[in-house]
Structure formats: C-alpha cells, structure tokens
Amino acid sequence: MAHIIVVGNEKGGAGKSTVSMHVATALARLGFKVGVLDLDLRQRTFGRYMANRAATIAKEGVDLPSPVYHELPEIDQASLKPGENPYDRRLSQAVAEIEPTCDFILIDCPGSHTRLSQVAHTLADTLITPLNDSFVDFDLLAHIDSDSNKVLGPSVYAEMVWNARQLRAQAGLKPIDWIVVRNRLGAQAMINKKKMGDALKNLSRRIGFRTAPGFNERVIFRELFPRGLTLLDLRDVGVVGQMNISNVAARQELRDLMKELKLPGVTVDF
After folding, report:
1. In this model, does residue 121 exceed pLDDT 80?
2. Which pLDDT belongs to residue 117?
3. Which residue spans adopt a coiled-coil conformation according to this UniProt entry (predicted)?
4. Do β-strands 142-144 and 151-154 pair in parallel, antiparallel, or remain unpaired?
5. If you count Cβ atoms within 10 Å of the first and of the last residue's Cβ in the chain, which end, N or C, has fewer?
6. CA geometry: angle at 138 spanning 132 and 141, to 5°?
7. What is the pTM of this model?
8. pLDDT tens figures, 152-170
9. β partners of residue 108
10. Where are the domains of the chain?
C-alpha cells in the first residue's frame, strides 16, 4: 500500500504548498512513484504549482522528475449511500484509484477547517504541519500563558489531529507520525526563537509530535512558484548561476527536512 503523507494545518501562509511541492518532487527524484492531491478546492495553490511545472517542462523541453497530479473525481450524487458525505466519497475514491500505482501519496490540505481536510488527516501515515516560527501560529496547536509561557491546553488543530488518531486506532491502523516543521526560522538566536523552541518541546511531549527545521525565508521560493520549479531543478533548467550561498543553504534545509521525516525506504542522496 502507498504511504500517505498529509501536509496540513488550519492557517494560511505557513508554507504548506512549498513544503508539499518540495517533498513530493524530492521523492520523485529519488525514484519513487508519487501521486499528489490538492484539497484546497478554492485557491488550489498546489494545483497551480503543478500546472506551472507542466508548462515549464513543455516550454523548455526538459525532463524533470515529477509527482503526478490528480484531480478529485466528480461523483454521481445518486450513487451515494444514505447519509454519506460526497466529499468523503470523492477523497476515498481518489486515493483508491491512484494507490495501486504509487509508492507515496501526498495530500495538501487547505489553510482552514474543511470536511476534506478532516478526513484526509485520518488517512495520514505521516502528517507534516508547517508552522511559522511565531506564537500566532503556535496558537493553532495550543493555548499558552503569556506571562509564564506555560502551555494551558491543546487548541483547535491539535484536537482535530487527536480525533484523527482516535479514529485510526479504532480502525486498527498504525499511529500517525506527526512532524511539526518550523518555517521561517530566524538566523539569530533571538528570544522569541528560544521561547518557541521551548514551548514546542514541552507541547510535543504532551500531545505527541516531533519537530523538524523547515525553510528560512528566502526570495528564491517566490521565484520558483511561477515556473513550477523546486530547489532541486535549478541545474536542470540551466540556472547554475543562481546557485548562490543562499540557495545552496536552502537545498541543505531540504535535505535535512527529508532526513527528519524518516519516510519508509527513503535514503536521501541528493
């Protein structure tokens, strides 16, 4: 069976689509067959990223290892069972259709609570939650006392993950491996950075996730999206001159992230 990776939280702007594209493309470059789904049916940022990639490949005539993008299938409402949610059927049908041909399925969730996102979390073997290094984003995971920095209790998103874990346990499925990825980390050891690190460490023991470093804020990520490219594609499309120190460091961040995910059968050698 394909290993299912879900990238989600309930806040926009945390870098979900950037993380999704880089993880999926890294796996494709390592020789795995990867299918991807975008559950944000309104903005479709990940879907547009993939469309931009297809256009660049066609325009430049380059062969870039890529995941395979799939739309959610339309369904006949008459085929639904009494009380069955149409979004549940669309997602389960999509996964069932692509699973036989994939080693990994990556699902990018919207930055809000939706039925599709809720169901996707119950399917996750690995859950990646990108988080800006800010207590604004931390509030999605837990409420914290502003004076003592003590965690008061889990918040809305952590509770949704807990519910997904309970449903998986009831179905006899293996536990979710949950990784919170700290994006936009400051280069300096600032007070806020240390407070965030301490708070995440305390919370991780309480609600059961691992932490991993993500991507620093870099101009290159904004430049890659219109062409559908990732950090791993720059040499293939003839932009060797753009491999400055910042971009080399960004590639190392991607290597570190892929290693920290500890996906089954994956040896990072790019």
Report:
1. yes
2. 96
3. none
4. antiparallel
5. N
6. 125
7. 0.93
8. 888 999 999 999 999 999 9
9. 7, 38
10. 3-261
